[in-house]
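FORM 7B: Structural annotation worksheet

SECTION A. Query
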Amino acid sequence: MDKVCFTAAVERYQNTVYRTAFHVLGSPQDADDAVQEVFLRLFRHKGSFDGEDHLRRWLLRVTVNYCRDILRSSWRKRRVSMEELPETPVFDKQSQAALYREVMALPEKYRIVLDLFYYEEFSVQEIGYLLDLGTSTVTTRLSRARQRLKERLGEDWQDE
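SECTION B. Predicted structure
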């Protein structure tokens, strides 16, 4: 298919392909992906079409088949939409949830050093390099963050 015919087909049938994909998939993002894939397949198609009606039917058939393949894919079955995810992580123990809430209540400059030190297991020197801070500044921020957590958590605080 030459570029002129391809461009004309995209302009004429883009909305039709999108609507069909959206109705099958139920997601605007997935429908956008489907439109791109369908028109990529049209661009690569080696055959010819017996008129506009044949082209339209071919595009819709490819759209439906592609959308059905997406719906059957194992990736799609394991995926969770962002709306279904909890806003805060789920913890095994109540004390973990309390610690998380208190860490998130700290100013960003303390949160980031705590995260890099305890969870990402960077050394003080590495954190200083990553944040463009001196090692003494990193040590001070870690110390102040620990102190604030100790004050807020009281007996629940365990500095390991």
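SECTION C. Observations
The radius of gyration is 27 Å. The mean pLDDT is 83.

SECTION D. Sign-off
Analyst initials: ____
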